[in-house]
Amino acid sequence: MIRIAKGAPPTNLAERARVGHEGHIADYVADPGDYRSGAKAFKPDSAIYGARAVKTRLRASHHGKCAYCEEHLPPRIAHGHVEHYRPVAFSQDDVGSPEIRPGYYWLAYDWDNFLWSCHYCNSTKKGNVFPLRNKRMRVRRHDGDVTAETPMLIKPDAEDPSEHIGWYREVPKGLTPRGRVTIKVLGLDLPAHETRLQHYRNLESAYERVCDLNGSPDAKARRHALAFRAFLMDAEHPSKPFSAMSAAFNRDNPLPPLPEED
């Protein structure tokens, strides 16, 4: 997980979001009891939050990767999700815990509440789980103040995940309570992330080849060493998959100095 600069929302989102939010608020005010009991539930309009302009801007700002696991999501192969950081229909303190209704219905179309995510992180793992440091501070209606909450999930477009999540080889490790909760809720340390493991093995292989070929008297071998060196350095660029892990690998495995030219 890396820090994301999401930028401004699409120009056509503001008015559609305003109308959508006003509708949700009016519905809640008319029947608050039904929405709290679950007799009624908010179903956000995908034509607004999932509009092409929204998805395009999110995909670009996230470098085509999942905000949470950094898996690359090619448009023609992987189906990216517009993730609601604060869930809309209902929320939960943990997996399997009681549903807290309603959710954050007044943020259903809020740009600040959107992230770009893979199916595994968004649906298989996180779902509607949104734990808080203090459960009693959870905001349940539109006239509340969400800034009074302290979410336990890292929000990568608002903070630096590296302050909360570190790495041991290819496995993320929580550096803070929030980091540990984020890893647990999203399943970031589970074997399901086999492509990240393969990427780590590629980093190891490239590093070994740099060390073996660095300073070789053979010109071709030296060129190969430079190519592997470039691969390792490029791997931590934000546009690359698993760049946080790659940056940690490079910090833990400093490259040997370049040999002097003859």
Walk me through this protein's architecture.
39% of the residues lie in helices and 6% in strands. By secondary structure, the chain is mostly helical. It folds into 2 domains: 13-152, no CATH class; 194-252. The strands form 2 sheets. The protein has a two-stranded antiparallel ribbon with strand order 1-2.
Approximate helicity band: 25-40%
What's the helix-strand series? Answer: HHHHEEHEEHHHH
Lateral strand order in the biggest sheet:
1-2
Q: Which residues form runs of ≥5 with pLDDT under 50?
A: none
Biggest sheet, in brief? 2 strands, antiparallel
Q: Round the Cα radius of gyration to an integer and report it.
A: 22 Å
Mean pLDDT: 95
**Count of separate structural domains:** 2
Which structural class should the secondary elements be placed in?
mainly alpha
Alpha plus pi helix count:
9
Distance from N terminus to C terminus (CA atoms, Å) equals 42 Å
What is the count of β-strands?
A: 4
Shape: elongated
> Which percent band covers the strand fraction?
5-15%
